[in-house]
Amino acid sequence: MGKAEGSREDKLKTGKGIFGQLTPSQIVDELDKYIIGQESAKKSVAIALRNRWRRQQVSSGMKDEIMPNNIIMIGPTGVGKTEIARRISKLANAPFIKVEASKFTEVGYVGRDVESMIRELTDLSVNIVKTEKQEEVRGKAEENVAERILDIILPHVRKRNDDSKPAEAEPGQEPSDTEEANRKTREKLREQLKEGKLDGRIIELDLSGDSMPMLQVLGPIGLEEMGLNLQDLFGNLMPKKSRKRKLTIAEAKKILLLEESQKLIDMDSVIREAVDKVQNSGIVFIDEIDKIAGSQKQSSTADVSREGVQRDLLPIVEGSTVITKYGPVKTDHILFIASGAFHISKPSDLIPELQGRFPIRVELNSLNEQDFYKILTQPENALIKQYTALLETENVKLKFSDSSIKEIAKVAAEVNEQVENIGARRLHTILTNLLEDILFDVPDRNKKATIEIGKELVNEKLSKIVKNRDLSRYIL
Description:
This protein is α/β, with parallel strands linked by helices and 476 residues long. The protein is built from 20 helices and eleven strands.
């Protein structure tokens, strides 16, 4: 049992093979380590992610008919919507991208078009698969790198018939004493290279440089928006230039390892696998979708139509084909998760067609004083743990009493209620103000110390700011 659990933890760390093994409850357990509350949102996301794997197991005939249940998360800022997205990206063995709806513009306006998010997702998928393939051939690549470095340090001494290859020994011909000595020296250097004893040595490398000039394409749609670049279009037609650089062997290893890995992998296979990953497992998180909702009451023609962005987004979410530099990518089975505070607009302000494409609606709750206390103490990345780790680098041990943590949570809840509710982000500003003097003075002490934060110190530092609502507005 322990061994199976350990292997699951290893897979979580590497980010591989997760949703094939973890149940929705286990996915929620992983999210619980970083996000307090919001059980409904975690449950919906966990089911949606597990369904990605379930669909892969269905027979081919039915597989194409199963559409993803896209999710829209509704709730005030700072309650965990974006954090859920961040943690999904850490967990998911799938291409994942987070975009902000407010950054897109309607077709015809200068700015990003919605199809660019699919191109970015495909770029990311290609990089993921390429990295995996490079790891598979790493052993062979390292051998090739060693040979190239040894050729620079100790060139072959055998006579050459031409300028490129050493002469082949005749059958039955014994190597000369010089060749034998060269071979032994080479093996000795190989061992030293493997052990890192030569890492500081300087060698000269011929590195290929980009021969394509930097060109700016003018017009409403540049090559970047089309998913193309000049190097891809004309790179093979232009002569490649090389330049000599002096590097340490440690630096040369990294550069040559990348070159040799790229030579050993089949990029056509990488692209096919990457596109398949995007089409069947891709996840797009669209944040701030409420910013493109609402009726258009502005009369100015300069305003970008929010409804126009929604209509551009609709076919992508419905399922269409986007042209990328790696070929066409279908969006039919990409999972879309949208989120928005919806302070001013309402989900019903989205165009009906787009609303219908997000059938799962999850409402996230505002955070209260008790939630703030849990956020400060329970998650693996809790703010108190972060500041404690930071000050440990200065040989200072930071200790918070339980009453001080409760007081910080109370202040955060009060300020959110009185000024503006920004959720858990309020804790960042409060702790920054609370620890400002400590963070400033600690480097000058030059000695180990333990600093205890009590309830009295919290009241002393924050009481004036909390009482002065105008000051709170700008500081907290």
